[in-house]
Amino acid sequence: MALEMRPDCERCGTDLPAEAPGAFICSFECTYCAECAEDLDDMCPNCGGELTDRPTRAKKHHDAHPPSKVRHYKG
User: Among candidates 4, 23, 7, which has minimal Cα distance to 73?
Assistant: First the structure.
């Protein structure tokens, strides 16, 4: 099973492309940009889990394992 690769920061709405570095996730895949993860002291406000670097997904794998298009920012 592949990671969902959510497209945005849940806190500020910043775009977080699957092929780009700079996203942080918890074990439930709550997703934040680097600035928000730092502001949150690398702790997920939803579940209390640790936020860690999300791996990138090479574009060549997007057809077989597409990143999510569902945005989670509630603005």
Answer: 7
Instruction: Give per-residue pLDDT as tens, 25-65.
Output: 999 999 999 999 999 999 999 999 999 999 999 999 999 99
Handedness of CA 44, 69, 21, 64 (dihedral sign): positive
Q: Is the pTM of this model over 0.85?
A: yes
CA 59 to chain centre: 16
DSSP codes joined into one string, 37-69: HHHTTTB-TTT-PBPEEPPP--GGGTTTSPPP-
Of the candidates 28, 26, 8, 25, the residue with the CA atom closest to the CA atom of residue 17: 8
As given in the structure block, the two tokens for residue 10 are 């849940």
